[in-house]
Amino acid sequence: MTSRLHCAQTLALLVAPLLTAPCRAGITYVGVPSTSGGYTFTNFDFAPLTGTATGSNVNGISNSGQVTGTTVDVNGMPTFTNFSGNPLTGTLTQLNTGAGQTAFGINSAGNVVGGNGTNAFFLPNGGSLQILMTPAGAINAFGINDNGNIVGQFTSGNNTPGFILNSISSNTFTTINQPTGITSDVINAQGINNHGLVVGFYFGNDGQVHGFTAIAPTTPGTITATAVTDPTIKPVEPGATFVFSQILGVNDQGIAVGYYGDSTLSQHGYFYNTNTGTYTFLDDPAAMFHNGVEITQITGINNAGDIAGFYTDANGTFHSFIAVPVPEPSSMALLGIGVTSVAVWARRRRKTTAPSHR
Q: Model pTM greater than 0.85?
């Protein structure tokens, strides 16, 4: 533990002069950039924090590097001040989503989707908020790709299946039902890439949530989700056992991201390769234990491999992060930085209020 942090902090000190971002409008940076697991993490909050807000959750990232999310209170619950922008090269601005709505997904055009568990919305970049009328009963929109396809969750009788909407102007959609053998039809479709690969999580027979994948059909209709094998974890805390898993985003290479929860109530981030069925675990290096609980959720990934999400610090306060892959040594040399390659093993939100999302 000590040596891992020391290595990460040493590398951060070497590259900080290049990587530390200047002060930007709408952003408060938390600490300095630090490196772990092949990624450089920049932690931040939307500013200024007002009312009961103490931190923030980033819920999605686009292929253009924009993020979207919301401010949160001391318990990590949204205070419904939503924002979007690029925390590395630009500014963060408040979104006019109205009271009680949470921003969950964003695409390269800067269009944002979200919901409040009653109504899902679409907010075009520079435009006005639109409530999703299709499917009827859409309660949350969690993801949007660069083609304008939207995924989320809607009510249908006593069930809450997932949906794939071709576009905001479309009157047709695809229903995503639970995997074969699962009793409850509770599906949270979280992300969709530009090839129509959908990821998310479902409510299992064991009373916990687990990841799934699905492929958008060429003709709208009804499809069955495919259950994803749960990760075999390497416990961060001695004796911790796996409890649940949520897949939250996917890029065009089929690399998905999410997090798992364990028996200590901690949550840890992961990558899931949909091509090979393998997991890799990664936490924000600034994540700390508070009352025995540590949280990192990776909520989105783009085609550049950049990831975004949030974590808790030693006070239990939630903060957002964006993390970019560390340049290869040859690239570092071109930048004039003499950094010795360091291999660091990394410890690996949505609050788990199943059956609903994040």
A: yes
